[in-house]
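Hey,

Quick one before I head out. I ran the complex with s-citryldethia Coenzyme A overnight. Inputs first:
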Amino acid sequence: SHGVFTYDPGFMSTGSCESAITYIDGDAGVLLHRGYPIAELAQHSDYLETCYLLLYGELPNEAEKAEFVKTVKNHTMVQQSMQKFLEGFRNDAHPMAVMVGLVGALSAFYQDHMDINDPKHREIAAFRLISKMPTIAAMCYKYSKGQPVTYPRNDLSYAENFLHMMFSTPCEEYKVNPVFAKAMDRIFILHADHEQNASTSTVRLAGSSGANPFACIAAGIATLWGPAHGGANEAVLTMLEEIGDESRIDEFIAKAKDKNDPFRLMGFGHRVYKNFDPRAKVMRETCDQVLAELGKSDDPMLKIAKRLEQIALEDPYFVERKLYPNVDFYSGIIMKAIGIPTSMFTVIFAMARTIGWISHWNEMISGPYKIGRPRQLYVGHTERSYPKK
Ligand code: SDX
């Protein structure tokens, strides 16, 4: 299996491909990464070990993991001139717009001496992206706050370092709460990969032209931004805040059922899962743990979320349409409780999904592949002549 794009007339609207990275059974609610169930990885693994698994296909032994973590730490800084590029944005630019720009700009630093057909070059590109995404994500946040960028600290774990870069300032080091770091690491694992979703398919399609991986990942980030995809986690919090109180839930449920109303319950439904999204179960448990740690188990947002979930599991409209909470439904409540603003939620999703994108890109480029070329069903005019004047 080498991620070859193949076309079957039955798949006219999308290209199909082979992959050995992730398996989903939407009807059974099964998600496996290289054969390992997501719930077991979330419970026993950590994000960098899951990155190793997705990229190389096997879990690392102790020595392999130590070497992988050490190499990731060697690339956490970005070129200083990225700071100038960052300062070209308005302070109120959406962090996703900044992230698309900064990641695309990485091409300018590494593209010239990169041969995508060299496995070593592909591996270094993967390390650079895994390592630099938290640094770039935190840069987006700091700039939006008008605060100086915080440099990475290589003595911290991946999740601790991210929270440090987000919340430390030159005046005060942020004291990382281990429960928050564990929750962030679990959020990273749960978002790491998800087979041929819209953004991963974009990365594959862009990569199939031979474009450099940094540009391909920037295309994936742009695709993830939409509220129907990765932007849903930000939209869930906006929806919960708009509902505001349990007494207004029925009003929004009616809107979600009204065919004349474009409103949809954010964080519900899925293109593939017609059963519970296995990631949502782990996310809900993590949400309960973090809010309990903060003494906020009666958080109004959580109460509204749980009531919506209960309705979705009981109301015939949602049951008939198999609309269950998806990965985005609880993640935002956790991140808000940690102090992360809603505008950063999809940035964090993109950061975590980078390993999935680059693993799919690497899988495709490492074998024979052809440029992707989705087909269409032409429904326009038949041939006609230009009118004579
Ligand atoms: C992600 O692909 C991936 O793997 C994505 C992802 C990943 O990890 O990469 O899992 C991440 O993107 C998760 C999805 C996040 N998006 C949202 O939570 C946004 C809200 N959800 C919807 O917009 C919607 O459910 C989609 C886009 C996710 C799926 O849309 P579909 O494919 O159109 O849903 P469907 O065809 O199964 O809909 C069936 C019916 C329709 O009603 P009828 O025409 O049959 O009467 O269900 C309705 C839809 O209108 N419906 C909803 C609904 N989702 C579908 N009604 C109310 N609220 C919703 N959320």
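Residues 194, 197, 228-230, 232, 256, 264-272, 321, 323, 326-328 surround s-citryldethia Coenzyme A (CB under 6 Å).

Talk tomorrow,
K.
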